[in-house]
Amino acid sequence: MADETISSERFRVLVEQAGLRLTPEQFDELRQVYRFIPRMQRVVRRPRDRAAEPAHIFVHPRTEVR
């Protein structure tokens, strides 16, 4: 559920499996936002075509040649 925060014990297992070294502050902060990951995955993992990417255009400023 998006409204439920993962338990400290369960999140600690995930952190250890991932090999992360977190301070207590980082641990608490990441545990609180962990519930938003499924929603983020739905947004990020969807098919996109090339129009979804921003254009990378470089325009060189003109300089006067004398």
Which secondary structure elements does this structure contain, and how are they paired or packed?
Blueprint: H1 8-18, H2 24-33, H3 37-44
Radius of gyration over all CA atoms, rounded: 21 Å
Q: Any idea how many domains?
A: 1
- Global outline: elongated
Largest sheet: none
Q: Label the structural class.
A: mainly alpha
Rounded mean pLDDT is 86
Low-confidence stretches: none
Helical element count? 3
Number of strands: 0
Terminal CA distance reads: 68 Å
Short précis:
The chain is mostly helical and 66 residues long. 44% of the residues lie in helices and 0% in strands. It has 3 helices and no strands.
Describe this structure as you would to a colleague:
The protein has helices spanning 8-18, 24-33, 37-44. The chain has one domain (1-66). The protein is mainly α.
Key traits:
66 residues, mainly alpha, 3 helices, elongated
